[in-house]
Write a structure and sequence with these properties.
Layout (H helix, E strand, L loop, with lengths): L2 E5 L2 E4 L4 E8 L7 E7 L6 E7 L5 E3 L7 E6 L4 E6 L8 E10 L6 E5 L3 E6 L1
Parallel strand pairs: 2-11
Antiparallel strand pairs: 1-3, 3-8, 4-5, 4-9, 5-6, 7-8, 9-10, 9-11
Amino acid sequence: QVQLQESGGGSVQAGGSLNLSCATSGNFGSMLCMGWFRQTPGKEREGVAVIYSLGGMTYYADSVKGRFTISQDNAKETLVLQMNSLKPEDTAMYYCAADIPIAGSVYMKRHWGQGTQVTVSS
């Protein structure tokens, strides 16, 4: 069974930095794609950054390009999001996600963590 657990959230002032981690248990080698999403009350969850395990390609939302960096620590089976130059508009609940193929089918299943709160004050 796949489990994802985020950590590293907190409160910082604008311009500060935070590092989010997503510890995984189960099937790390089968996670074809992993990413970070965020959500604020009343809004839809939005993608922040994604990394493809095969090849290591990364993609970012325009709002975080140049400030956030996504990476995988394969030895620790952990997903990391380094966030620099934080802005108040980055305030949100941040979720880790992993896409894993469903054996014997053409489909993949997205697994979610419980989220970690990031609050940036001006």
